[in-house]
Design goal:
Elements: H1 2-16, E1 21-26, H2 41-52, E2 56-61, H3 66-72, E3 82-85, H4 90-97, E4 100-105, E5 119-123, E6 135-137, H5 140-155
Parallel strand pairs: 1-2, 1-4, 2-3, 4-5, 5-6
């Protein structure tokens, strides 16, 4: 799975150049480790930087109420680019935003319908995942690595 992460980090350079980018991350399991009710601070910090960059929209994907997610994140929603949505709402949000998307979630439903230029990442700690062509990371720490690499690429 290490080469998967390396390939994924390399993909962030291409996404960083996109004029319009949607970054959608699942809350439970991607931004917040399993069993933890708060987002990891480093992932929140990376999303805050992305929110401040032009042409970038950030969405937190969860089945929980938006107010609850807001309380559990360290995000500055006042920047205007922050969205909250459920997995089933992502296709509509992608159409509205246009451009390309990075979607990271534990729920495969969130990755459905991605375009050829989009990057979908399943958070899955299965030692022997089925080879379905999906990019994978194992946990919230690897999600942080991906987001920080995207921040670096998007700033240049």
């Amino acid at each position: 799975m290490e080469s998967d992460l390396e390939d994924l980090l390399a993909d962030m350079a291409t996404l960083g150049e996109a004029p319009t980018l949607l970054v959608a991350c699942g809350f439970d399991g991607a931004l917040s480790p399993d069993g933890d009710d708060r987002a990891v601070q480093q992932s929140s910090e990376a999303l805050n930087v992305l929110l401040a960059l032009p042409g970038t929209t950030v969405a937190v994907v969860s089945r929980r109420p938006a107010e609850e997610i807001s309380e559990l994140m360290f995000l500055s929603g006042a920047k205007g680019g922050l969205r909250m949505c459920g997995p089933g709402e992502l296709p509509e949000l992608r159409r509205e935003i246009g451009g390309v998307a990075l979607v990271i979630d534990v729920d495969p439903e969130s990755l459905a319908g991605l375009g050829a230029d989009d990057v979908g990442v399943l958070v899955d700690d299965d030692e022997d995942p089925e080879d379905d062509g999906r990019r994978r990371v194992t946990d919230a720490d690897e999600v942080i690595e991906v987001l920080e690499e995207l921040v670096s690429a998007r700033r240049h």
